[in-house]
Write a structure and sequence with these properties.
The protein is α/β, with parallel strands linked by helices. It folds into 2 domains: 2-14 and 98-231, 3-Layer(aba) Sandwich (Rossmann fold), CATH 3.40.50.1000; 16-94. 50% of the residues lie in helices and 12% in strands. Strands 3-2-1-4-5-6 form a 6-stranded parallel sheet, with helices on both faces. Magnesium ion is lined by residues 7, 9-11, 181-183. Residues 7, 9-11, 181-183 line the site of magnesium ion.
Length: 234
């Protein structure tokens, strides 16, 4: 038996374009370098993640602050309230988010494969992340008992205790577990520390690190192709 454990954001669905689109709508500008925008926005995530997971700050507040910091560092014209407005616009876009047809095919294939257990390990505020589970209809493939949201635990990714918690939930040993995620420092470092296998979706073409995942892919298409091959016994 093997467990395939997915991250949600930017792994099961791509939120990067939605984040930029929301900013462009509020500021009424075109962001020239979306990779740089996302890089800064994501770096700012680490500053507030602990407070977010403990419920001290809300997702709207932290996202609003991250937007304003990103606007400031990129020299985009903004007013103080624009960050919060962009956070609202992003939430609105998120309420229409969907899995891609290819990702659905992959999940269908895994779900009908008796040797595989599907699970999710996702970081963020509990309510916000569970809303995504519902909006994306993930319980079609993932039993709710196989979903761990860090906001429901005392730990943050890449704390190895989260990975141990998942091993216990699924009743599987590290060598039988795969982490599929886009964030090297959170998803892949955690998996490496726990002795799991991993697939890194390196969306932003970051340089290759010293400690390697089993597989590295760069696009959604490469990811779903690889997962389909894994499902068929790569
Ligand atoms: Mg992610």
């Amino acid at each position: 038996m093997r467990g395939v454990v997915f991250d949600i954001d930017d792994t099961l669905y791509c939120r990067q374009f939605m984040l930029v689109e929301a900013a462009e709508a509020v500021l009424n500008v075109k962001v020239s370098d979306w990779r740089e925008f996302i890089k800064i926005f994501y770096e700012k995530s680490d500053v507030n993640m602990a407070g977010l997971e403990s419920g001290e700050v809300t997702t709207r507040d932290t996202n609003g602050w991250r937007y304003n910091e990103t606007f400031r560092l990129l020299g985009l014209p903004y007013k103080p309230q624009d960050g919060g407005l962009a956070a609202d616009a992003y939430l609105e876009l998120q309420s229409h988010m969907k899995l891609s047809g290819e990702m659905k095919k992959v999940l269908d294939a895994f779900a009908s494969e008796p040797g595989t257990i599907l699970a999710i390990l996702t970081a963020g505020e509990s309510k916000h992340q569970w809303n995504k589970v519902d909006m994306l209809g993930l319980d079609k493939w993932f039993p709710r008992s196989n979903i761990i949201v860090t906001g429901d635990t005392p730990y943050s990714k890449p704390d190895v205790r989260l990975f141990k918690m998942m091993e216990e939930r699924l009743g599987l040993a590290p060598d039988n577990l795969w982490m599929i995620g886009d964030n090297y420092d959170k998803d892949i470092v955690g998996a490496l520390d726990a002795g799991w296998h991993s697939v890194w979706l390196n969306r932003r073409d970051l340089p290759t690190p010293d400690r390697l995942p089993d597989f590295e892919v760069r696009t959604d298409e490469e990811l779903t192709d690889l997962l389909m091959r894994m499902c068929k016994g790569l």
